[in-house]
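dumping this here before i forget
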Amino acid sequence: MDKVIKDVGDIQSRLLDHRPIINAETRYFVREFEEKRGHRESRLLDNLYKSVTETNEQRQNSSSEEIKQHLADVIARLGAANHVVQRIQQRELEGQQSKQLQENMEHLKEQWAEFLKEQQRLKEEVDEEHAKAVGGISAKYNEMKKDLDKLDI
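structure:
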């Protein structure tokens, strides 16, 4: 039975697995192509690579100088913009502080007015109590004076 499975596997690999044939054909095509062309493409690609490399080096040097100059310009502009923004923020802060100061002053004036009203009310209460106490003491002294006058007679 094992021999039958090997035969079936061998038949299947020969019928369906074409990789060895494709690999051999590819190697043959590449060998024929290289012999006929004589490696012209590889030399051409090497020359192109060298010229591209040289161009990149030259471009990088000039680009880096341009970038440095543009960067300096950008930094100067950002500094100016930053200065303007700081001035705007300062003005806004001063405006907010003056508004807040005015609001605080109005609030303090209201509190002071309430405090004065409360003090006036307390003063009136104390004056009333004082007047009652003075009246009571005066009445008591008047009675005592009458009692003394009765005793002196």
